[in-house]
Amino acid sequence: MASATWSLTKLDIDAVSGALDRLLKATGAHSAMVVDRSGQLVTVAGQPVEFDTTSFATLAAADFSANDQLARLIGEADFTSLAHEGENESLYFVDVAHRLLLVVLFDKQTTLAIVRMLAPSVAAELAVIFNSALTRDHDNSVGGFGVLHGAEKEIDRLFS
Amino acid sequence: MSMINYASREINCKIVYYGPGLGGKTTNLENIYGKVKPDTRGKLISLATETERTLFFDFLPVDLGTIRGFKTRFHLYTVPGQVYYNASRKLILKNVDGIVFVADSQVERMEANIESMQNLYDNMAEYGYDLTKIPFVVQYNKRDLPNAASLSDLQAALNPGWEVTDPALQHVTPDPYHAGENLVDQLPTGEWVERAPYFEAVAISGEGVFDTLKAVSKRVLKALA
Q1: What is the dihedral of CA A62, A63, A65, A67, to 10 degrees?
Q2: Other residues' Cβ atoms within 10 Å of the Cβ of residue A147
Q3: By the 8 A CB rule, do A64 and A82 touch?
Q4: CA B17 to chain centre
């Protein structure tokens, strides 16, 4: 099989959002999001963003993955973080459990140094949450796979 | 890897359009973008060269409907077809849920098709993915061209089938898209084989584009059911 399914419950998302909110408060960054390394947006916290978050998530994951490959070319196992600094807006990416990315969006109200210092511990906290979700689905002990179980006829109807 | 988000009530899946350069992968996405309702799709993003050849990938998110209260969101990607962009192709394949192989039907492109199909198998294997076990469909594009190879030649070269060893799966399975043909069948030698569903297409006019998309999406969702 190419890849299994994994699911996030509302409790998972609430825990992630709580961690992101604490990070935003501690750093003064205005928004943060978690993106699956395959490019899917998991959640966004902080000030509402005005850009297309779906496109953003895809490009962020691709950007990070491309940099991962650059790391390998120069003999590093990976780059665990990545920063983009703009005139007004900046981004800081941190790996989460090799499966996701924490992306912090900030402006001149804070500095890269503070974000860089505080984001890794939140990424570690998120890793615990996501590892738990991934393991749970792997064990199939919670209804992560259940949503489409037995839905063959509904799927047929959707594409008829 | 499909992700089910119970908070936003979404099922997110990743489909990759693979195939040789200039075969019509980007055209498939452009056609989908142009024909689906604007409220069911996002932006079409192309990371392309100045000559509009795909450099990294094209990306189009589309919603294909709701099942059991969950919105089904499909993220469609293309890969760059040129041989030398293999690093990019491999990256895009990561965590893929379904694959469309877009073959160029022109006789002159047969070698390029075969090389790309082999490259797909190789890249999937490097991730530990088994192409015979994930939703996979083949699209024969450019069927309108006078130099298009015959379907039987294309099927023999690109979709000859893989052996079915599990006795539980060794039963004739009709091809729902082609009357009188089977997806799983027994050869005269006694060996059971399965082929990927295939579609004829003229992507530039939209012919076969949605049939292909529907088929792969349906197989992706059924893999979750």
Answers
A1: 160
A2: 19
A3: yes
A4: 5
B148 to chain A nearest CA, in Å? 29
- Nearest C-alpha of chain A: how many angstroms from B112? 25
Looking up tokens 């990371």 gives B47
- CB of B67 within 8 Å of a chain A CB? The answer is yes
Contact A149 B134 (CB under 8 A): no
A62 → closest Cβ in B2, B6, B56? B56
Q: Which one-letter amino acid corresponds to residue A4?
A: A
Q: What is the pLDDT along chain A (160 residues), one digit of tens a residue?
A: 445 688 899 999 999 999 999 999 999 999 999 999 989 999 999 999 999 999 999 999 999 999 988 999 999 999 999 999 999 999 999 999 999 999 999 999 999 999 999 999 999 999 999 999 888 754 444 444 567 888 888 888 888 7
Query: Bridge-partner residues for A92, per DSSP?
Result: A83, A104
Residue with tokens 């082929």: B195
Euclidean distance between CA atoms A70 and A59, whole angstroms: 16
> A141 φ, ψ to 5°?
-90, -15
